[in-house]
Amino acid sequence: MAQTSGHGGTVLWVIFEGSAPDAHLLEILRRHGFRAKAIAVGSLLAALRARRSPVGVSGQGPALVILDRLRASHGIELYQRLQRRVQAPILLIVDRESAALWGRQDDGILVAPFSVRRLLHRVRALLTQGIEEVEDLIEVGPFRLNTARRVLQRGDSIYCLTPKQCRLLAILMRRAGHVVHRRDLMRWVWGTDFPVHSRTLDVHIRWLRRILEEDPAHPRYLETVRHVGYRFRVP
Question: Can you give the pTM of this predicted structure?
């Protein structure tokens, strides 16, 4: 589950190599509301090899671990150990020359150089993925959503959802009764803050209403809060 700090912000571990972390990377993450904690690769790897808790290195567990351009010689070992010991997604930042060594071609790898927008997109996509993986089954009112299978059940009726439909519905159902801002939905589902993409959100809401509502034109469950966002409501 995503960790938050008492000072506010989602906790990210940034694992670095050398005498100091990338100050620019830390500044970007902190400026966008994340609590980025820099950890030297040697201290974390030593703790894992000694079978000590990796959380003891920083004092707080992460919602996401970023491995920042580590040499493959020990970076791959650290990556494999973290996968076994830390319940958080991992983002690999790698140079183009070493990208093939890691065997990843999904949202979990980011090849340098990259834009701030692309970095934030990857971070938010992995954080949302981490939230979804905490709980496979969500039950609200007459609805039962299995996020692992992307199946929604209501009574005897079963509906198969697309990945984006499932992610959007899961976010709203977990916050049933509360308004979720449009910008937050765009960030958590599509990894962007840009309003130009907001029509995509409206289209997905319409698709979900066709599944959820007896009369999609007069929704009972998926409520629009004008100029703010949407609320999953159980009458």
Answer: 0.56
135-232 has which fold?
A: Arc Repressor Mutant, subunit A (1.10.10)
Contacts of 218 (CB under 8 A, 6+ apart): none
CATH of 10-132, one of 3.40.228.10, 3.40.720.10, 3.40.50.2300, 1.10.10.1400: 3.40.50.2300
Average pLDDT score, the chain = 84
Those residues with Cβ within 8 angstroms of residue 91's Cβ, 6 or more apart along the chain or in another chain: 64, 65, 66, 67, 108, 109, 110, 122, 123, 126
For the record, the structure tokens of 106 come out as 């999904």
Tell me: the pLDDT tens digits for 8-46? 468 899 999 998 999 999 999 999 989 999 999 999 999
Q: Which of 5, 76, 70 is nearest to 34 (CA)?
A: 5
Q: What is the mean pLDDT of residues 124-152?
A: 78
